[in-house]
From TrEMBL:
Residues 1-149 form the HTH marR-type domain. It comes from the Bacteria. GO terms for biological process: response to stress. This is Transcriptional regulator, MarR family.
């Protein structure tokens, strides 16, 4: 459905305003869908983000600062997020023996298993991307990169 129909507005100040409204609307729609998927697993999108990052480390610990640096949604309190994941048994925290000020995070077996359960659900949520060809998806990514630069 075209953005004009969704927001019931035919005229925009300029194409950039139309694109901005379209981006915000689409972001909110996608976020709502993904958050519904996460509710089934009793985690938040930020918690999933931490688990996803730690899975990518392939068993190697990550410093809290490193996790924060690559999070999709920048969350200022990685400690609080990690506390909740530790309580759920999904990650572990340790202190770097060489530098005791550095706190390291590692995903647990349970965390990896949860991600294995979540992945098919997210694949279902991402079916909307099938509306784009590979070249269109690449073009969309390139345009978003351009917006951020």
């Amino acid at each position: 459905m075209r953005i004009e129909e969704v927001v019931k507005q035919q005229n925009f100040k300029n194409p950039q305003q139309k694109a901005w409204i379209n981006l915000v609307y689409t972001y909110n729609q996608l976020t709502d869908q993904v958050n519904q998927a996460f509710k089934k697993f009793d985690i938040t999108s930020q918690q999933y983000n931490v688990l996803r990052i730690l899975r990518g480390r392939k068993g190697e610990p990550a410093l809290c600062g490193e996790v924060k640096e690559v999070m999709l949604a920048k969350n200022p309190d990685v400690t609080r997020l990690s506390d909740r994941l530790i309580k759920k048994g999904l990650i572990e925290r340790s202190v770097n023996e060489q530098n005791r000020r550095e706190v390291q995070l590692t995903i647990t077996k349970e965390g990896l298993e949860l991600l294995d359960e979540i992945d098919p659900e997210l694949d279902k949520q991402n079916q909307f991307l099938k509306n784009l060809s590979d070249s269109e998806a690449e073009q969309l990514s390139n345009l978003m990169d351009k917006l951020r630069s």
